[in-house]
Amino acid sequence: MGKILSISNQKGGVGKTTTSVNLASSLSYLGKRVLLVDVDHQANATTYLGINRANLEYTIADIFLERAKIREVIQKVDSVNVDILPARYELGDVSQYLLGHDNKDYILANALEEIKADYDYIIIDCPPSLGVVTINALVASDSVLIPVQCEFLALDGLTQLLNTIRVIQKKQKYNHKSLTIEGVLLTMLDTRSNIGYEVINEVRTYFKEKVFKTIIPRNVKCSVAPSHGLPVTEFSPGSKGSVSYKNLAKEMVELSER
Ligand SMILES: Nc1ncnc2c1ncn2[C@@H]1O[C@H](COP(=O)(O)OP(=O)(O)O)[C@@H](O)[C@H]1O
Ligand SMILES: [Mg+2]
User: Fold this and answer.
1) Which of 10, 18, 244 to mutate to test the pocket of ligand 1 (most atoms within 8 A of CB)?
2) Domains of the chain, residue spans
3) What does each C-alpha distance from 48 to 5, 51, 142, 206 come to in angstroms?
């Protein structure tokens, strides 16, 4: 049965999308059946995987607007053995529609329920906010992976996310889930500066064993790969970025099988 995992941090630019795409592809290399769900109206994950957004008949917005069945929206990714629920700019209009909806926090959870058995992992790339779309993602999830950039003010704003997680756990009484923290992932470590290592210590002191052992280094291949419409694991399989995401996938799978 598919494990549903949100990649979330309301701060932008911390590596949510890079992690979603590359964790998805790395899990697929381990033989896992993976669905990536793009719920950011900027649709970066959709673009990173080389999906031509102009040609899509349906996107994730049509699920929130209850205009399409989830199976009609799922696309196959060409470069890796991953399926995707793609997004496009119209996802930005969804919040307004949901305001007047009785069940507004459970729409994604209900839709994913229909296809959960087809996958081992369902990874949701969240937008940089704690709005209604993120709430939908978290309510649907079994766990949340929190990317934290190894930079000054890394932990800033995380209290808000942790409070939101508690609120979600109460909401989940209705769908019998209980959101856990899958782990905190340290991203974009610049190995040449001290600040990164200071952040690692600070984050480990705060989150203790919840911090993944795998750390993602700053690696230019990670930032170039998206312009080729490929995960870094395909674009440059031997690069430090690629290897670290494959290690993260192994660490996650081992944790869940322990
Ligand atoms: N490990 C990394 N090394 C170098 N650049 C990275 C790395 N991870 C992400 N980036 C780049 O940093 C920017 C923000 O990353 P992104 O994954 O889009 O963050 P978010 O989804 O949290 O906004 C992007 O330009 C991305 O290519
Ligand atoms: Mg993003």
Assistant:
1) 18
2) 3-257
3) 19, 8, 25, 32
